[in-house]
Structures are given as structure tokens and as C-alpha cells.
């Protein structure tokens, strides 16, 4: 936790803000997210490679007046998958139908959606790895031939009736591309792998959001938030909103725009209050790291053991917490489990307890 000259003690308040779980986000947060979503590829910040690839695919389809190929968007939560799906529809002037894997639990659920698509429609299936297996098989045929077979009747008298579908573009999103069966993955014409954003890109995301919120935030303030949002635009926007709240409640001297004025002091105070440390680790990240470091002496620890120890789903640890911890070099994945790096021991002020420290090795040599 960084020092701040705030007069607020974060320990006095029981604030439990989940910065990563979209399911726990309040409706207000979701409305806020929607309002900040870029509407075109041009407005979409960063992911230069994916943007170029998508642009080419969409433009080629437009030139030939056909529906674009199916697109799979893969990557950790909050990096812009839903936003890109909406952009694909918007850029081509096509209607968009939104569904999700957990909502498709029977082949019939999918048949109902597919048979009601209009020509050229974009069908977005979020969390596509959670779709029922029977629906997955129906989707193979639908993606390839724009056709499905509907079973009529039961038992020995059952027959399958083919049904032609309107040509459509499937946009699938997944945080766990590895869980998709190969036949499904292979039927996408293009897979976009979204990467975490760098700080310069996050500053752009934040500058855009601040201006939409009418918040007057200086460069230093935005850069501080950018360094603490785990490479994730959703978290950047959410932290910015907390900073905006802080700026409204503690107006700095001098003028501000309608949404208030935020400087470095306000950012540090707000983020300290919400328990976001200098690296952007939140409570869950820190809980995971503490367990690896203190209970398991730095590891290796298996994913399931870790999940049980912090009382979280293994899936959350694997999809939400771990990719970031690996990316910033606090843990590494080994065949025997997760292992803390020297940087982790240092960040948590435990360098003297690191394995080998007693032997007098400098921590960087461990
Ligand atoms: N490249 C970007 N430029 C600007 N804002 C972005 C960008 N990517 C994402 N955002 C913002 O981040 C928020 C989250 O993005 P989005 O909902 O698309 O993420 P997601 O990948 O679908 O996450 P999940 O896996 O949780 O569904 C949106 O409100 C959007 O405004
Ligand atoms: Mg999404």
C-alpha cells in the first residue's frame, strides 16, 4: 500500500469493492460501463494488432457484400470483448443479438435463437465455453452451413428436419479459450487474443472517460490510476469513478469542471481508501499472494489448494487473479504449482523470509 497524505484511514471503513467481478457490479456500475463503451474501432484504444485484423476482416466483407466470418474474442475479463462485439455489429450497420453460454443449456435454446436471426445479424455469445455440449454440436453445423437439424418426435419415430438459417456472424467471447473444444475453435475464421493494456493506453482510456464524465483530471493523476488498474480498462474506469466521487466530496481549492477536479493527492487518497495498492493489487490478489508466501513458504502450490485457501472458485483464481500476477512477475506457473518470485517477497516486505534468505543470499539471486 502506498503512502498518501490523506486524512482518511482505510482501516476505519469496511469497504469491499470487487474491482474485477462483473457479476457483482451494481446496475449503476453497469450503466456507467455502457456509457463509456467506444462505439467504433477508431475510438477503441490500444489492441492495435487486433484492431487492424478486425478492420481488414470487416472491410473485406463489406466490399464483397457478405457477412463477415465468425470471430472468437479471447482474453481476461474487462479488456473489451463485449465492446468489440458491439463494434463489429455497429461498424457493419448490422443488428446485434446478445446471448451467453450459461443461458444456452439445451440445443432447443440455441435453435430458438438461430432460427429467428435476420440476414446479416451479429450473434454474440458471451462465455461461449459454458454452453451445453448438445448446443455446441448444433452450432458446428450452423456456423459452417447456416443450417441446423431439428429433431421432430421421440423414440423410434423421431426424424430430423433440416432448417436453413439466415447468414449470420457469430462473435464468441471467452475468458478460457483453452476450454473450447477444437471443432468449435476451428470454425471461427479469426481468433482475437486480447492483451492487457500498457500504461500509455490506459491513460488514453482514462482521459476519454474523464472527459465523458466531465472530470477535470491532470496528467499525473491519470498516470497514477493507469499504473494501478491491472492493465484492464474496466478497472481503470471503475477506479476513475471512485476518484471522481472523492473529488466531488473533497473539492480541491480552485476551479473545476462540473464533475470535479482530481489531482495526484485525490487519486492516492481515493485508491488507498479502496484498498488498491501501488501495483494495483486488490484484496483478493493480496490474499492469494499472502497464502502462497506465508502459508506455503513461496510454493509450489496447486491451483485448487490455493482456491480453497482463499475461499474462491478455482476458475476465478485462474481467469481473473493469476494472469495478472503472472504478468507482473509476482508468481510463475510450474508443473508442480504456483511459485512466488523474489519480486513477490520484496513487494510484501518479506524478503528476509524468502527461501535461501537465511543462507545470506541476496534476494535477486534466489
Ligand atoms: N479499448 C478500449 N478503449 C476504451 N474503453 C475500453 C476498451 N476496452 C474496454 N473498455 C471499457 O472497459 C469496459 C469493459 O469492457 P468489456 O465489457 O468490453 O470487457 P469484456 O472483455 O467483455 O469483459 P468480460 O470478460 O468481463 O465480459 C467497458 O465499459 C469499456 O468502456
Ligand atoms: Mg463482456
Keywords:
Rossmann fold, two-stranded antiparallel ribbon, Helicase, Ruva Protein, domain 3, binds magnesium ion, single chain, 366 residues, 42% helix, disordered N terminus, Arc Repressor Mutant, subunit A
What features would you describe in this structure?
A hairpin with a 2-residue loop joins strand 10 (331-334) and strand 11 (337-340). The chain is globular, with a radius of gyration of 24 Å. The model is unreliable at 1-24 and 361-366 (pLDDT under 50). The chain is α/β, with parallel strands linked by helices. The chain has three domains: 47-193, Rossmann fold (3-Layer(aba) Sandwich); 198-273, Helicase, Ruva Protein, domain 3 (Orthogonal Bundle); 283-365, Winged helix-like DNA-binding domain superfamily/Winged helix DNA-binding domain (Arc Repressor Mutant, subunit A). The protein has helices at 27-36, 48-63, 81-91, 107-115, 133-145, 182-186, 199-213, 219-226, 233-249, 264-273, 283-295, 303-310, 314-327, 342-347; strands at 71-74, 96-100, 122-126, 147-152, 159-164, 169-174, 190-193, 216-217, 261-262, 331-334, 337-340. Helix 7 (199-213) packs across helix 9 and helix 8 runs parallel beside helix 10 (264-273). Residues 22, 33, 36-38, 44-47, 77-83, 173, 175, 205, 233-234, 237 line the site of adenosine-5'-triphosphate.
Amino acid at each position: 500500500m502506498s503512502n498518501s497524505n490523506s486524512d482518511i484511514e482505510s482501516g476505519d471503513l469496511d469497504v469491499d469493492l470487487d474491482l474485477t467481478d462483473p457479476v457483482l457490479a451494481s446496475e449503476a456500475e453497469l450503466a456507467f460501463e455502457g456509457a463509456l463503451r467506444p462505439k467504433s474501432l477508431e475510438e477503441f484504444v490500444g489492441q492495435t494488432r487486433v484492431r487492424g485484423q478486425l478492420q481488414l476482416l470487416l472491410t473485406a466483407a463489406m466490399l464483397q457484400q457478405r457477412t463477415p466470418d465468425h470471430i472468437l474474442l479471447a482474453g481476461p475479463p474487462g479488456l473489451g470483448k463485449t465492446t468489440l462485439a458491439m463494434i463489429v455489429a455497429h461498424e457493419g450497420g448490422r443488428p446485434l443479438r446478445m446471448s451467453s453460454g450459461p443461458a444456452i443449456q439445451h440445443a432447443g435454446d440455441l435453435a430458438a435463437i438461430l432460427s429467428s436471426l435476420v440476414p446479416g445479424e451479429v450473434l454474440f455469445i458471451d462465455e461461449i465455453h459454458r454452453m451445453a455440449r448438445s448446443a455446441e454440436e448444433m452450432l458446428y453445423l450452423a456456423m459452417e452451413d447456416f443450417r441446423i437439424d431439428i429433431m421432430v418426435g421421440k423414440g423410434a419415430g423421431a426424424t430430423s428436419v433440416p432448417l436453413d438459417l439466415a447468414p449470420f456472424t457469430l462473435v464468441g467471447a471467452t475468458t478460457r479459450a483453452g476450454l473450447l473444444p477444437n471443432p468449435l475453435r476451428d470454425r471461427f475464421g479469426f481468433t482475437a487474443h486480447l492483451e492487457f493494456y500498457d500504461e500509455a493506453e490506459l491513460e488514453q482510456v482514462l482521459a476519454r472517460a474523464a472527459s465523458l464524465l466531465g472530470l477535470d483530471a491532470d496528467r499525473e493523476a491519470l498516470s497514477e490510476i493507469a499504473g494501478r488498474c491491472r492493465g484492464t480498462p474496466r478497472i481503470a474506469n471503475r477506479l476513475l469513478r471512485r476518484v471522481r466521487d472523492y473529488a466531488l466530496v473533497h473539492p480541491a481549492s480552485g476551479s473545476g469542471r462540473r464533475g470535479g477536479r482530481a489531482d495526484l493527492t485525490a487519486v492516492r487518497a481515493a485508491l488507498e481508501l479502496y484498498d488498491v495498492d501501488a501495483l494495483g493489487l486488490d484484496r483478493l490478489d493480496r490474499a492469494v499472494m499472502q497464502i502462497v508466501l506465508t502459508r506455503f513458504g513461496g510454493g509450489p502450490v496447486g491451483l485448487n489448494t490455493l482456491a480453497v485457501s482463499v475461499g474462491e472458485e478455482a476458475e476465478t483464481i485462474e481467469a481473473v487473479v493469476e494472469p495478472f500476477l503472472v504478468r507482473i512477475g509476482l508468481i510463475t506457473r510450474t508443473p508442480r504449482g504456483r511459485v512466488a518470485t523474489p519480486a513477490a517477497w520484496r513487494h510484501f516486505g518479506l524478503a528476509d523470509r524468502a527461501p535461501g534468505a537465511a543462507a545470506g543470499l541476496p534476494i535477486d539471486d534466489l
